[in-house]
């Protein structure tokens, strides 16, 4: 459970204002654990009412998992899914390669704030809050 606290702490330190598009999260399947992105998505939803999850290639399954976790737990509803193919310059091969891309836009549910408050309350009662 200590790892979850570290992830949440890491998410809370991120300054969303630094991002070029304030509600977009570009997901990598190698850089951060799944629940880092789940918690970051919740934070974006709190501030923007919607979040756009974006990924290329092998990270697509990670984006789908994040969206499903948020939907299944009542935090988000699916608004839009876009798939495309983008050309990425591959230095090792010396030529461009085609990569699959997905973008999923999620909106927060009517009871999002209620669920977030309940989760915060539960965290505080379990002694996971900051002392």
UniProtKB/TrEMBL annotation:
- Tell me one GO molecular function of this protein: RNA binding
DNA/RNA-binding protein Alba-like domain sequence ranges: 23-82
- Record GO cellular component, one term: nucleus
One Pfam match, given by its short name, reads Alba
Protein name per Swiss-Prot or TrEMBL: DNA/RNA-binding protein Alba-like domain-containing protein
